Amino acid sequence: MATVGLSSRRSSPDTGTSAATAAPSRPIPWVAPLLYLAVLLSGLTAAAHNGSLATARTATFVAGLLLLLLLERTPLSPPRSAALLGARLVLIVAVAALDDSGLSRALLVLVPFTAYFVFGRTAALALAGGCVAAVLALYTLDDPSWYADPAYVSDLLMLLIGLVLALSMAAVAIGEQQGRARLEEYAARIADLSATDERNRLARDIHDSLGHHLTAVAVQLEKAAAFRGHDPDAADQAVADARHSAGRALEDVRTSVRALRDDRAAPLALPTALADLVRQLDDGRVEVSLRIDGEPYAGHGPATAVLTTLYRAAQEALTNVRRHADARQVSVVLTFGADSARLVVADDGRGFRPGAVTGFGLLGIQERTRLVGGTVEVDSAPGSGTRITVEVPRTGPEPAV
Question: What is the mean pLDDT of residues 124-132?
Fold first, then answer.
């Protein structure tokens, strides 16, 4: 007898994060306006101290800062990002030339800061190096021995510190934005997985519950039609059994609806439920025996999930016997142990090759049992009957089975 136990991601070269999860980065909106305000106040204070507050030079200085602020509000997109950054650099140089306080040179840090968000780390570092080189060139043109002047050296060191802080802030901001995007993606995946799990659970319930009862109704109605002419009493009993199965199907539907609205499922009286299943199958053509050893588990929580899993497994196994096995004898043995419970359903029917079965029944048994940490074994071969063994631990996860 045969026995069976039942996309690549591209990394970003600049940030090292997955291109599939990286969100479009955008500069921190409050950094540039705050820096512009500080430069404006410093420049106006210096102009007032020099007596040049009402001059065209100061007005041009203010207009340049306002234009820079407008450019900051212009969204950056790849086709025009380089041009906008270039325009900002030119305006910053012009504003710095008009600023009596000298603080406007600090605006240079905004160029690599913004470039970090648009072009990535490499381009930002290159622009930062270009800004330092440009400042050194201006210092050299203004005073070839600038390195001996503490004021020049101090300004250069402040620029370097500003660039380091700006680039660090950009890196942290991009990491935070991408981290948030990844969390949103993971949340969406979890929602999809939860929806898939719920669909699978509903599919198992429909297959195991309604499928079983509708099969019973169909068999009983066929029996009623076959016996109508020569055994009216047997036909009437078959119709009554079909009506009973239809009522059980309706009851199961109501139970499922209540379970969807309330997670607190009532404990299952498994011995009684199994006896009812056996009674439905034992119609005179199939002899069914039921034996229960040990004390059934009681209570809510994991015990309920275990009992439901065992019941659904027995229900599906007996439904398969009714549909496919053409068996004469079926035995159902349920054993409750201290640590686990075992269900064995065996028949002397036609059997099958387990690997060749593609239906949903055995798959549903396997899925349910796996969710509570159990195992399923199917022993069968053509002409040799079938034996299904389901073993589940007494305690474990509490899935929606």
Answer: 88
> Residue ranges per domain, the chain?
31-187, 268-401
The Cα–Cα gap between 386 and 312 comes to: 17
And the tokens for 153? 């050296």
| DSSP per-residue letters across 266-301 | PPP-HHHHHHHHHHHH-SSSSEEEEEEESPPP-SST
Contact present, 347 and 325 (Cβ < 8 Å) = yes
Q: What is the β-pairing status of strands 375-380 and 340-347?
A: unpaired
Pairing state between β 340-347 and 329-336? antiparallel
Per residue in 171-186, pLDDT (tens digit) is 888 888 888 888 888 8
Task: Provide the angle, in degrees to the nearest 10, between the axes of the packed helices 302-320 and 360-371.
Answer: 160
| CATH H-level, domain 268-401: superfamily | Histidine kinase-like ATPase, C-terminal domain (3.30.565.10)
Q: How many residues does the chain have?
A: 401
Neighbouring C-beta atoms of residue 277, cutoff 10 Å: 22
User: Which of 367, 72, 337, 44 is CA-nearest to residue 197?
Assistant: 367
Beta bridge partners, 342, equal 335, 391
Tokens 């009851």 belong to residue: 251
Q: Is the Cβ–Cβ distance between 340 and 183 less than 8 Å?
A: no
Which is more confidently placed, 27 or 231? 231
Cα 3 from Cα 18, distance rounded (Å) = 44
User: What's the Cα-to-Cα distance from 371 to each of 216, 346, 360, rounded to whole Å?
Assistant: 28, 23, 16
pLDDT of residue 11: 40
Pairing of strands 329-336, 287-293: parallel
Among candidate residues 312, 367, 368, the one with its CA nearest the CA of residue 345? 312
- Partnered with residue 144 across adjacent β-strands are none
pTM, two decimal places: 0.43
Q: Stretch 123-129: mean pLDDT, rounded?
A: 89
In whole angstroms, how far apart are CA 372 and each of 9, 130, 167, 293, 332? Answer: 34, 63, 51, 21, 21
Maximum CA pair distance of the chain? 123
Burial (Cβ within 10 Å: 0-12, 13-18, ≥19) of residue 5: exposed
